[in-house]
């Protein structure tokens, strides 16, 4: 646990020729999450012994499905031929570096606009991860925060209902505003509203 606690990112390596080692990755993942308490920790699932394809016991599809369920990249390597060995280390380092940059940016922020497109359900789903990252870094559920649905001018292409977005905002205890960068509707409003919340928070803290 102490080893995991100090880690900033993890490679979860199994042998594609041994189903047992693949099954053990689940326990490894759960142990990491338990110790780190952070589902977004930089993490790669790595299938080694890619040079022994004729002895494969874990299919590519099976490994990719697990990686998708975890929301992490999957890479196959061969320690013998060195195929992709450098790649997995560079990929992990890139994720760690990117995470540090984001964390430093969030750490200095006094308030946040969480913007998604009302025409893209995927962008709406991504707001949950953004919110969790902010809370993890700031450790403050009352940080000034607005949920913003953009592209309000494209109502006929709406994929995220007004009720769905308002429900998420209510669950988080934050305001919800719809904007249009094209027509400028409510664009100034969200910035003024956020600045007002930040100012109000500073007065309360003082």
TrEMBL record:
The keyword Nucleotide-binding applies. It comes from the Eukaryota. The keyword Secreted does not apply. PROSITE patterns: RAB, RAS. Coiled coil: none annotated. This is Ras-related protein Ral-a. GO terms for biological process: signal transduction. GO terms for molecular function: GTP binding; GTPase activity. InterPro entries: P-loop_NTPase (IPR027417), Small_GTP-bd (IPR005225), Small_GTPase (IPR001806), Small_GTPase_Ras-type (IPR020849). The lineage of its organism: Eukaryota, Metazoa, Ecdysozoa, Arthropoda, Hexapoda. Signal peptide: none annotated.
